[in-house]
Design the sequence.
């Protein structure tokens, strides 16, 4: 099928650029390292790299709409207002920057997790669900919400910062300034922290014996050992799954979502965490006896959901 | 102005029935005690009492639409699926029940906090706000959410159960089965519990001297003393305000609400809690430096927001 749109996913380390057809299938792709050069205007170095990647895939053809998924809080006006993982882009108006590189091409920007939600709703694991939650698990947790068939944007465009829901006010400090944010427990950082805590508390004796020092236990060690079936590692995964379920139950209480789609970069860990979270979720949801169970499923588009969703968003914005 | 609709607020102890005009002003009202008779079909005794109250205000006139606000989780089909404070109504289809009493009259049902949100959005403190949160403080916490100018209903109709967001998994048990639900801290029950804890811990010496026994300290004792300016009571109010702010910050992270409207039966306490919550909120909201501050305001319609909102909902449903 012919390409329908281009989608760009700007991450803290890499920029993924894809062309997709109407089914969301990737028909061409390229990738660049994310520059972290502080420029005037903000985001200019990143925009140049994106333009270069688009030229590789599109040449001078400006007919396809282009969506950009950005790692941070986007205003309704399209300004990246707050981007802890892309400080050089803080305050950038990427639509404007891209238009100067590629005049005549139509651009739209959105938060990366919102893009992932758009992809899963359009052609992935949330197809047919009007009320669902997209959770992107990486170092932190990103979120995209659909309510009544529409993406929830909020009063400034900042909705979906679900990783910063406080679930334990006496919990560990979060870079955002609060304590006990959900992403301190149920993300890549959460796996790493709970693994280290378990190692120091003597609950990972076999793993510590392998690694040599409890302080050196990493999240990946636990994930790998859990995949191999090591009970002590599975117990840590179960703990992280419990926290994942707790946050999902919170979102269900507020939004009455019918489905939760888990995506993001933590794909391998997710295959362990999803069943662990499922096990704990049912008993946690208020009025659970009168609601259909909430399904937790893996993202259809996996790690590519952000770039593909940016493409869908572009096609929906410029039909 | 002429009456536009009737609104009924069914609470755990009383049923409030009002006629409102297009501005939301009450033009007639009456009140009944809520019957708690388990009947077949469910809710029949309550429906009879509502019918009697409507007859008092409307006689046989069936021209006005009637809205019912009900204390529990309502399905999209209008069934009261889960009502811990009105067990006799569990499973009731109140539209159907009311139609048998008053054939020809048009009825609509919704969750009571959703009704309050509709009232505040239509003609109260949330007028002009497309994204806002209605918090009804009573013994527990109810919620109504607007996103993009629309009431968030969710996949089953159960959205807005914000009192059951877990904010402290090691916290006190909640009747819902979880631990540390928000309403264990920031509601009437929260004031009572934190007051008692403070008394037992020796942090309310003057109040305990008055009451005689730390175990007998009630929420009202603290609220009254705080209104009189007693520092030790103000400290408890400040603690409850901190929890109120924490839950609001959570909701802001998820939904990016522009305003929070506080209503419900805890009106007197709310006048103390709102300033206390305001004080703590700003530092708690992620990306607070790039968002406009979130205003926390009192409900314009006060305790009547539920009944008035039920009337607005009826007028909106049957324009």
Sequence:
């Amino acid at each position: 099928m012919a390409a329908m749109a281009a989608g760009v996913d700007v991450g803290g380390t890499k920029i993924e650029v894809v062309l997709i057809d109407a089914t969301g299938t990737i028909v061409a792709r390229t990738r660049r390292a994310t520059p972290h050069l502080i420029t005037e205007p903000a985001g200019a170095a990143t925009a140049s790299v994106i333009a270069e990647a688009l030229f590789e895939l599109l040449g001078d053809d400006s007919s396809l709409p282009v969506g950009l998924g950005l790692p941070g809080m986007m205003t309704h006006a399209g300004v990246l207002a707050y981007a802890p993982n892309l400080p050089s882009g803080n305050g950038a108006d990427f639509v404007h920057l891209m238009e100067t590189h590629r005049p005549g091409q139509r651009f739209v920007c959105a938060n990366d997790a919102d893009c992932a939600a758009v992809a899963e709703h359009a052609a992935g694991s949330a197809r047919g669900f009007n009320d669902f939650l997209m959770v992107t698990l990486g170092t932190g947790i990103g979120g995209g919400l659909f309510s009544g068939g529409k993406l929830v944007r909020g009063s400034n465009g900042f909705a979906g910062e679900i990783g910063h829901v406080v679930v334990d006010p006496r919990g560990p400090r979060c870079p955002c300034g609060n304590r006990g944010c959900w992403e301190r427990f149920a993300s890549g950082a959460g796996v790493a922290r709970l693994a280290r805590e378990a190692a120091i508390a003597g609950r990972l004796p076999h793993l510590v014996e392998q690694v040599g020092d409890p302080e050196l236990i990493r999240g990946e060690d636990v994930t790998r050992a859990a995949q191999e079936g090591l009970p002590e590692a599975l117990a840590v995964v179960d703990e992280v799954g419990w926290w994942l379920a707790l946050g999902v139950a919170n979102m269900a209480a507020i939004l009455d979502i019918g489905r939760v789609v888990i995506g993001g970069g933590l794909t391998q860990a997710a295959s362990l965490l999803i069943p662990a979270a499922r096990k704990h979720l049912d008993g946690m949801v208020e009025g659970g006896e009168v609601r259909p169970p909430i399904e937790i499923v893996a993202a259809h588009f996996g790690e590519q959901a952000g770039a593909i969703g940016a493409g869908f968003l572009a096609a929906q914005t410029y039909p």
